[in-house]
Amino acid sequence: MTLRETINQHVKDAMKAKETKKRDALRLLTSAFKQIEVDERKELNDDDVIKIIQTQVKRRNDSASQFKDAGRDDLMQIELDEIAIYTPYLPAQLSDDELRSALNDIISKVGASTMKDMGKVMGMASKALAGKADGKRINECVKELLA
User: Fold this and answer.
1) Could you tell me which CATH class the domain 3-89 is placed in?
2) pTM (2 decimals)?
3) Half-sphere exposure (CA, 13 Å, Cβ side) for 77?
């Protein structure tokens, strides 16, 4: 069963169990899938679905931080609840030690030694670690390793 089919089944399960928050959050996700399919005229595979979920999680994180800054803890909590619903559909994220190890391998392959080589490292790391680590985490770790 594809990831999208799994999510559709979970929407049905949430409807039966009367879990309105989960149902609504997953419906927002399925509508994002449909929007991409219509806009780009293509059938989504699991990689596309994961990218869309990551985008939605990132948007929710940004919104949650803005709500926190504005003192709107009620709205921030809604965003965090949706992130918690979306997270199980994403691949497991690398720990900090695993990320450092992977980036050290990439740095040695590229032959990077200074901050001037950061672009080369980031290009390779973004492809190799797609879905396993957030771009922001990769960027911060590369800066730390090359400094």
Assistant:
1) mainly alpha
2) 0.78
3) 5
